[in-house]
Amino acid sequence: MLVYSLPQHLFEVTLNRVFTSDLVIEKLRDSKVKENPQEIYQWSNFAGYYPEESPNRRKIAHETYSLAIQFNDSNKYSILQALTNPK
Predict the structure, then answer these.
(1) How far is CA 16 from CA 3, 11, 19, in A?
(2) Keywords in UniProt for this one (predicted)?
């Protein structure tokens, strides 16, 4: 399925310096995305493709945390799970 393989393809593009965490953050701030826990999860999942202590991962994590706090515990924990290493 394209949805599950897309993050890996974008990570490969990132290695060529074409795709950055700033684009993920821009998408997370989109009004249609920031109110939808599933969309936040999908975009936040890109963080897992960066090394744990990298600035890119931290940027995505910071934005994800700021969005996750608005949801109930179940959605919040699901969103935060996206920050771990990708499946």
Answers:
(1) 21, 9, 8
(2) Plasmid
What was the pLDDT predicted at 87? Answer: 61
The three-state secondary structure class of 16 is: coil
Residue 17: both structure tokens together: 């310096």
Beta-carbon count within 10 A of 37 CB: 20
DSSP conformation class of 31: T
Tell me how far CA of residue 62 lies from CA of 1, 4, 47, 57, 75, in angstroms.
29, 23, 10, 9, 17
Q: Residue 78 contacts by C-beta under 8 Å, 6 or more apart in sequence?
A: 37, 41
The tens digit of pLDDT for each residue in 23-59 reads 899 999 999 999 999 999 999 998 888 888 888 899 9
